[in-house]
Amino acid sequence: MARPTTDEGVCNLALDQIKESIIASLTGTTKTELLCARWYDTIRQSILQSYNWNFALLSANIARSGTPAVSDYTDSYTLPATLLKLRAIIDPKIPLSRRSYEIQGLLLLYNYSSDTDNPELTLPVWYTKDETTISVWPALFIKLMSEELALVLGKKLTARPSIMKDIRTDLIETRRLARSMDGQSRPPNRYSSSKIVNAGLFPSHNKTVAGDYTFPAGMDD
Asked: Which residues have a Cβ under 8 Å from the Cβ of 29 and sit 6 or more positions away?
């Protein structure tokens, strides 16, 4: 049978796991339909925010909205309405921990304009979007979504403890597999020689570390 392509289809995968009857719509009035509708968006957004999923990564040039009235920053830019998690500013290879910025609602405050008379009108950013199109979700993400949803629904629909235990066990492995598979679409940089590798574990002992190692972007700068 084909993988689900609708919100109801994903919910029904969750209901299968807790031995409940499937639903036809998220706009219905049964207890199960109301529960699915109440939790579906929250669970999806929570999972998307929990990890830097590559399939939900989007880049955009966001527009300058003006100069903040009271701030240490020279520029404010309007963030996309679908943004769930900011991931990079200007250069995706530089982690946000090395940037000085502030988010106020849907505004990103950042010092980007070197000339206040000629401000930078757009700012490139990378972010996790609220990806609602199920056809672009990897199969493992669909499985993860259904299992996370099953845990919540099971508490409300009195699923047996043994079923809930099995779901929790499956969820641990699904999280690992989903993140591992998603990471393959954008593998980390590999270094045969770097400042970290060349320095070794104990520089004072003149010991070095041989071999190829991977580091998160920016760690070896």
From this structure: none
> What global pTM score does this model have?
0.78
70 and 38 in one domain?
Answer: no
**pLDDT for res 210:** 45
Angstrom distances, CA of residue 25 to CA of 76, 125, 163 = 41, 36, 25
Sign of CA dihedral 44, 46, 50, 56: positive
Q: Per-residue b/e over 103-136, b at no fewer than 16 CB within 10 Å?
A: eeeebbbbebbeeeeeeeeebebbbbbbbeebee
The strand pairing partners of 61, in sequence order, are 124
Domain count of the fold of the chain: 3
pLDDT class for 156, splitting at 50, 70, 90? confident
